[in-house]
Design brief:
single chain; ABC transporter involved in vitamin B12 uptake, BtuC
Length: about 375
């Protein structure tokens, strides 16, 4: 068995690979295999995830029900109407939302880590989650947006997230250029301020039940998922975000290396950062408004994707989207089945999974620095 060598340790192309000295074909083949495997894994995960719960439904039955509703395929005549309602009306919208939120948070994490050149960056960094939390707390505790009915909570959370994004952008640009350091500091400052405001709203309301509702929402939940307009909005925003970030992969590569390199390659760092911030902020605002604050997905998944297919963002973005979707569906399954009939907030599950990974990453960074 011949050990694999790094490019620096192997001065020339490997025998038999003179036509591909940089290994481009090998990377494309590896990326294709990963994407195909993750795509198949996502389909299997959705079928298992929809069937898991207090009333277990086997994946074959789930596939027949979904095929009947989506494609009009026969095969549901023998299916119990209760199982059909559980799959189509209750669990499938929830799993679809998990797929969208997981994919969206993962690719936003990829973009943020390139934008600020910090491997520990994630959507929490920009204070967007804190802004959404403040808006949601105002809706739950004081009836903000009551005229919107059942959409008052997500609408208030979305407005709070957009306001936080605008504030971060204004603060970061107030001193001149929009640099990585300014964006980091502005995001941290705005996030802390809005977290304090949320705590004040909870304290001022004096409602124990309201405080409990706010806490559950802050930890994330997919329980409000339905086949309605908000789910369609989430789908459109996530698909557009993934597509845009994949198209902008070369620009993300340049930004991750440094501003000087980006200028050399014809990319304006300030303008590109502003554009990325707007896209990421919109996506995260929609996701947090739909599912609450869910941490660690945007931190953990980008590292897993880079280890799988390399550092090129054209490959990392779709890989991270699939990985994030699979991770969040399994986290949702765990949140539903571990303490039946109670439901664990999904943010607790992702934190339990993500915290050990963060410790390993810190240890690895420390070893590299030493």
């Amino acid at each position: 068995m011949i050990p694999t060598a790094t490019p620096s340790a192997r001065p020339g192309p490997a025998p038999g690979r003179a036509d591909d000295p940089l290994g481009l074909r090998a990377r494309r083949r590896r990326t294709t295999l990963w994407l195909l495997g993750l795509g198949a894994g996502l389909v299997a995960t959705v079928l298992v995830g929809v069937g898991a719960g207090a009333v277990g439904i086997d994946p074959a039955t789930v596939a027949r029900i979904v095929g009947h509703h989506l494609l009009g395929l026969p095969g549901t005549a023998a299916v119990d109407p209760t199982s059909d309602a559980i799959v189509w009306q209750v669990r499938l919208p929830r799993v679809v939302l998990a797929v969208l939120v997981g994919a969206g948070l993962a690719v936003c994490g990829v973009a943020l880590q390139a934008m600020v050149r910090n491997v520990l960056a994630d959507p929490y960094l920009l204070g967007i989650n804190s802004g959404a939390s403040t808006g949601a707390a105002a809706a739950i505790l004081f009836g903000l947006g009551a005229g919107l009915g059942q959409h008052a909570l997500p609408a208030s959370a979305f407005l709070g997230a957009v306001a936080a994004s605008a504030l971060v952008l204004a603060v970061a640009r107030s001193g001149g250029r929009l640099t990585s350091t300014r964006m980091l500091l502005a995001g941290v400052a705005v996030g802390y301020a809005l977290s304090g405001l949320t705590s004040f709203l909870v304290f001022a309301s004096g409602s124990a039940e309201g405080a409990r509702s706010v806490m559950f929402w802050l930890l994330g939940s997919l329980g409000l998922a339905q086949w309605d307009a908000p789910l369609a909005v989430v789908a459109v925003v996530v698909i557009l975000t993934v597509a845009l970030l994949a198209v902008w992969g070369r620009g993300l590569d340049a930004l991750a290396v440094g501003d000087e390199t980006a200028h050399t390659l014809g990319v304006s760092p300030d303008r590109f950062r502003t554009l990325l911030l707007l896209v990421v902020s919109l996506c995260v605002a929609v996701l947090v408004a739909a599912a609450g604050s869910i941490g660690f997905v945007g931190l953990v998944v980008p590292h897993l994707a880079r280890r799988a297919v390399g550092a090129g963002h054209v490959r990392v973005v779709p890989t991270a989207a699939l990985m994030g979707a699979i991770l969040l569906v399994w986290a949702d399954v765990a949140s539903r089945v571990l303490l039946q009939p109670q439901e664990i907030p999904i943010g607790i599950i992702t934190s339990v999974v993500g915290a050990p990974f963060l410790l390993l990453l810190i240890r690895r960074l420390h070893a590299t620095a030493a």
